[in-house]
Structures are given as C-alpha cells and as structure tokens.
Amino acid sequence: MKRLVSLLMAFTLMVGCFAGFALPKPAYAVSFENVNQSLSFLHSVHILASRADAKLPDVYGDKIDLNNTNVRAFQQYPGFYPNLARKIIVNAPYENVEDALNIQGLSKRQKNLLQSHLDDFTVTKTEAVFNEGADRFNNGIYR
Predict the structure, then answer these.
(1) pLDDT by residue (tens digit) across 21-38?
(2) pTM confidence score
C-alpha cells in the first residue's frame, strides 16, 4: 500500500510539474494607433535625458550642484552628511551659492563649515530628472 501511494504521489508530482508547459500562452495585441504619441514621448524623454547628461559633469564632477544633487554627494565633506546636507537640499533652489548661507536654523559651526566649502559648490537651473520624488534624499545608489 505504501508503495502504491508513493508511486501515485510521484506521478502526480511529475504531471503537476509538466502540466504548465501544455497550457496555451496568452497572445498580446499591439495597437499602432498611438505610434506618433509614443514616438513623441520617447523624443521628449531623450531630450530630458540629454539635458541631464549635459549637467552630469557639474552634478557628479568636481563641484556639487546645490540645486540638483542628492544628499549622499555631501559625504565627501566631513560635517555635511546627513544633517547639513539635508538642510541644504530642503531649502533649494538657490540663485547663487552664497544663498545657502542664509538658511534658517544653521548653527554657527554649520555656517562656518558651509562658508569654508563655497568653492566646492555650484548652482545651476533645477532639473526635474534630478529632483523628482525623493531622489534627492535616496536615489537608490549604494556603495
């Protein structure tokens, strides 16, 4: 009896494993009515990506763009990450680098630290690709 139950279980298991291969696969229809809209969308994404790519040397190069970078970029400067970096990001956008010195709630130490690193920062026009959602606080890039 045990042997019969074992064979029945083995057969059931085999049938269950291979039964999925015999099922028909769903067919997906593609509509070509909105091809022009799709191409227009792709073109606008390409333009946005091109503007972002052009800004990357500023954002991730020698200087940190206070209007477009994320909080983790400030890790290279001792004393900035995470508190001062968060204050800088929350109060953006800035017209010029010196505007960051006018952030409300900065301690004297934080102002001195910021003053000593003004040459390490730059300010450019805010780009949505760098500022959407919570990307400035957590862009999902971890080392």
Answers:
(1) 655 555 555 455 554 555
(2) 0.56
